[in-house]
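Supplementary Methods. Inverse-folding protocol.

Structures were first reduced to a discrete structure-token string of length 385. This string, shown here, constituted the complete conditioning input.
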């Protein structure tokens, strides 16, 4: 991959500092021993070296998970989604006057930002978990007033994303980390358009278990990020290795100590098209505004331990806080069943993943037109902790 750190710029005259930071971060990231292909043992268990690296650093990059054909499927759906987005935050139609994608959803779906902006940093949004605002470079004069940079509930808009969600290797990783009875979290498309993509301020995910007496380094689950075009130091997510073990960190103090949002211990995710990164949700992470020349599109989805969800009152970030019972978990887990069957139909030569809760209950899910029609607003059932 041609890394475009040299084209990225900062703000307030710190372009040279930003470029040096990106180059140094990329060099350190490539030296870290936490990437490679999916590796399983003869009994189907995940390679111990992968698990060790994940728990040590809080993230890992699986190389070459999605092939060119699957990436083409995702790109086709992406183009359709982008074409059908509303013309503005208050619009109900797309550029061709058709009903726009997502505008009739009750659940939070489309998230807007000014180009190169930081819509969450320094605000009380998302329970105030983004306490420091990121730098906001000035976009080109021809940039629109606002862009869609995040789409939640993405499985209702893309069959290709649904099939990635049912990938047997990735679901096996979820079982290895969170147990055979793992549960869903939520799904999203992150869109970092060149010269316009918004930043995501430094934060740790999760709001529910920080003060729990049973807290540990995996309490808030993890996210997968499947990369359509890859990602660079300039447009990718940055993480501070090991912070998933520290509990709730003082982000403001860390930024003040570094003298800027360029945290010295942070490393960027460097991925090729088809790579899938996994990040512990408790790891401190964020991303800078995409001033580079490269697109970054990630298919995001996460999973939890059942013990972190069952009987727990949700954190209220992605939906209203409520206590999650077995019925709620079962209803939300149907997406795993649909995804497994959808993937079987597209890739019949693969051995599908056997999700233990369905095997125990005898539940079977078939992906068809009726199932697809029933996905509208499925993310109202997200299990947000």
């Amino acid at each position: 991959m041609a890394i475009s750190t040299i084209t990225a710029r900062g703000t307030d005259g710190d372009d040279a500092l930003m470029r040096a930071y990106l180059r140094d971060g990329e060099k350190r990231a490539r030296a870290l021993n936490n990437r490679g292909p999916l590796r399983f043992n003869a009994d189907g268990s995940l390679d111990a070296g992968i698990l060790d690296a994940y728990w040590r650093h809080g993230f890992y990059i699986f190389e070459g998970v999605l092939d060119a054909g699957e990436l083409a499927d995702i790109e086709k759906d992406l183009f359709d989604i982008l074409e059908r987005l509303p013309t503005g935050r208050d619009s109900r139609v797309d550029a061709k006057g058709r009903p726009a994608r997502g505008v009739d959803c009750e659940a939070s779906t489309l998230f807007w930002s000014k180009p190169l902006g930081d819509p969450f940093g320094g605000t009380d949004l998302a329970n105030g978990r983004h306490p420091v605002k990121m730098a906001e470079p000035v976009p080109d004069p021809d940039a629109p007033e606002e862009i869609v940079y995040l789409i939640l509930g993405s499985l209702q808009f893309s069959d290709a994303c649904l099939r990635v969600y049912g990938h047997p290797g990735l679901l096996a990783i979820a079982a290895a980390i969170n147990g055979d009875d793992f549960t869903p979290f939520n799904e999203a498309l992150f869109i970092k358009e060149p010269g316009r993509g918004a930043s995501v301020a430094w934060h740790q995910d999760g709001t529910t278990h920080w003060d729990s007496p049973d807290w540990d380094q995996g309490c808030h689950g993890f996210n997968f990020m499947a990369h359509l075009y890859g990602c660079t130091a300039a447009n990718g997510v940055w993480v501070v290795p090991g912070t998933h073990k520290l509990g709730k960190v003082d982000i403001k103090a860390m930024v003040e100590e570094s003298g800027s949002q360029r945290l010295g211990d942070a490393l960027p995710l460097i991925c090729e098209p088809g790579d899938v990164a996994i990040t512990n949700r408790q790891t401190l992470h964020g991303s800078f505004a995409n001033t580079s020349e490269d697109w970054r599109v990630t298919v995001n989805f996460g999973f939890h331990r059942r013990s972190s969800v069952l009987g727990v009152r949700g954190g209220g970030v992605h939906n209203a806080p409520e206590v999650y019972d077995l019925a709620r978990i079962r209803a939300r887990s149907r997406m795993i069943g649909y995804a497994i069957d959808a993937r079987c139909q597209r890739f019949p030569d693969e051995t599908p993943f056997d999700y233990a809760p369905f095997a125990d209950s005898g539940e079977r899910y078939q992906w068809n037109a009726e199932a697809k029609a029933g996905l509208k607003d499925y993310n109202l059932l997200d299990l947000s902790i």
